[in-house]
Amino acid sequence: MVRSWAITGLLALVSSFASVSQADTILESASFGHNGRISSDKRLIPGWQLSGRGHVPEKMSDRIILTPPHTGNKRGSLWAEQPLAETEWTVDFDFRANGEERGSGNLQIWYVKEGRTKVSTSSIYTVGPFDGFALAIDMHGGRGGTIRGFLNDGTKDYKNANVDSLAFGHCDYAYRNLGRLSLIQIKQSKSTFEVLVDKRRCFVTDKATGNSFGVTAASADTPDSFEVFKFAVSVPDKAGVGSQSYRSYENQQVPPKRPNTNGNQQQQQQPNAGNSDIDTRLSDLQNRFQTLVSSSERLLSEIQALSKKSDERHRDISSQLTPNRDHAKNMEQRMQRIETMLESIQKDVKNKDLQNQFKKLQDSLKNSHSGMMEHLQSTSHQLLSSTPRMGLFIFLIVAIQLALAASYIIYKRRRANMPKKFL
Which domain covers residue 200, as residue numbers? Predict the structure, then answer.
């Protein structure tokens, strides 16, 4: 009796744990990065198509760089090849944005129809009519970063419209240069459509329409580098392992009726069925724990890699700061020597012997100045005395003019006294 109660309690505990730990199913065809790797060969992303304008987006083992950190005016896009047929789903999107102090790029998550042909590499500001939902992440409004939601039924041309007035929900989020990844979750249930940022609700609305997922990024003159680390699409596990095990256990608890002669055999078979069900559940729990352990190991390895990068960056910064410190130390030593020299000069000035030397120097300068002035005066007097007198020069000019006038008068008189000839 005690054993049957213990088995029943253990089964109830395992059943409740299985129902609580039941997780959604990841759609491998529409997801990447959920297992820690984007692409095994850094060339193809299974189920996705990558394209760009002005450059080729870079594929790495753990991320996709849609826009580079250098040279602006670049575009990158990533679109799922197959549309999503599920009506309830959840998207886990991890990204990072780095750039200069005043970056002006934008990042969009799309859930639209015919996204590869109608949206391609466009942003929310350059896209034409689209049918579905768009989540825009940019520096709109100068508030350090915003996340806004847009809905369109295919009739509104966003390229020729006032995009800022078309958002139906938004929240502020400073996403640039955080030094960590940012998590965006988009959840669609039977009745609601919800957006969460770092596990906090941003906005919620009615159910959105669309069937294809995509991500686009654009950078302006001041570039922003947008890096995508994970895009995981999961759907509810409607036929989970836990519920199946629980139903099988109920079926085993109600075996077909048999004659009373085999009552003892039925009592023996029920514990055996319960034990087999316990083994199944324990095996399932063991698999789940192994999954958690592997995820923890992967997380630990990522933390170690981040710690290694942080140490390397610290060493680089320290190596860069060491020459500056030496230069500052040398400058401080020079300033100290200059201060010492000034103090010694002040002490010497206060010394009487030095004051007497300054006085003698001043007297010698005065004597030199007076001797130079006297020499200049005597030299100028000699120059003035050696020049010819101006009166003599004037007298000579007047005498020449008088001689000329006298000669002219004599000439006239002689001509007048000459005999005149008459014809």
Answer: 24-236
